[in-house]
Amino acid sequence: MRFVQESTEFVAMQQAIAYYRVSTARQGRSGLGIEAQRDAVARFAAVEEFDIAAEFVEVETGKGADALDRRPQLAAALATGRERKCPVIVAKLDRLSRDVAFVAGLMAEKVPFIVAELGREADPFMLHLYAALAEKERRLIAERTRSALAARKAQGARLGNPTNIREAGALGRQTLTEDADAFAVNVMPIIASLQASGVRDLRGLAAALDARGVRTARGGQWHVSNVRNLLIRSGRPRG
Questions:
Q1: Is the pTM of this model over 0.70?
Q2: β-strand 88-90 against 50-59: which pairing, if any?
Q3: Exposed e or buried b for every residue in 102-128, given b needs 16+ CB within 10 A?
Q4: How far apart are CA 74 and CA 164, in angstroms?
């Protein structure tokens, strides 16, 4: 009797970076939307045999061609993908942006993006087309909204509440506070990672954030004061 031993090849799964985004601080705190995106990416990765090596979660609007400056977690995902030479996976294209210029800018980063909803074969040209359609849809919605408001105004309806200036000011300050809190939520995991790697002092953290392409809340470079204020806001030790 002759026994034939079959050889088994073990093929390493390709690594990938997962990126999830929600638009509001409230959604970020509750996890609303994040788990659905994580499930979609996990199912896609299982079918396509990707190993999710790292996850990045962002709380920030996707509007504007300059949105990357306000999305430090996306910048960190790009840096990690570039370092590990692996793609970044998102559940849906709008988790990146509906702005064509922004998507084009991401393509210029030379880090491949895979949209789970569109499939692995969706190349950059297709992503540009889908982004253009999404941008057009957003513009049409905005135009319909403006037309409806103009029609109501023409009919004599009073829009807004100009007498409630104090309440409007308080709401504006609350919005600024929530934006600052959301920015801190996005950046603190990066700072925690830097601290865990041995970067403790404020100047070193500022330099490391700049080196990773992470911008401040106003889109500038980091200084000792920026880092200190962020740590104070987050209730973390200042080093």
A1: no
A2: unpaired
A3: bbeebbebebbbbbbeeeeebeeeebe
A4: 38
Q: Which residues pair with 113 in a beta bridge?
A: 88
Q: Which two tokens stand for residue 20?
A: 């999830």
| Relative orientation angle of helices 202-211 and 165-196, to the nearest 10 degrees | 90
CB neighbour burial string for 51-84, b if at least 16 within 10 angstroms, e if fewer: ebebbbbbbbbbeeeebbbbbbbbbbbbbbbeee
| Helix/strand number for the chain, H first, E second | 8, 4
Hey, what amino acid is at 107? M
Q: What is the pLDDT along the chain (239 residues), one digit of tens a residue?
A: 444 444 445 556 899 999 999 876 555 454 458 888 999 999 999 999 999 999 999 887 655 555 667 788 998 999 999 999 999 999 988 888 777 788 878 877 788 889 888 888 877 777 777 777 666 666 666 677 777 777 777 777 666 555 555 665 665 666 667 667 777 776 777 788 788 888 889 999 998 888 776 778 777 788 999 889 888 887 765 55
Hunting for tokens 């865990």 — which residue is that?
A: 196
For residue 145, give both structure tokens.
């909204």
Query: In this structure, what token pair is assigned to residue 13?
Result: 């799964």
Which residue type sits at 14?
Q
Report angle CA 96, 99, 104 to the nearest 5 degrees: 80
DSSP 167-184: HHHHHHHHHHHHHHHHHH
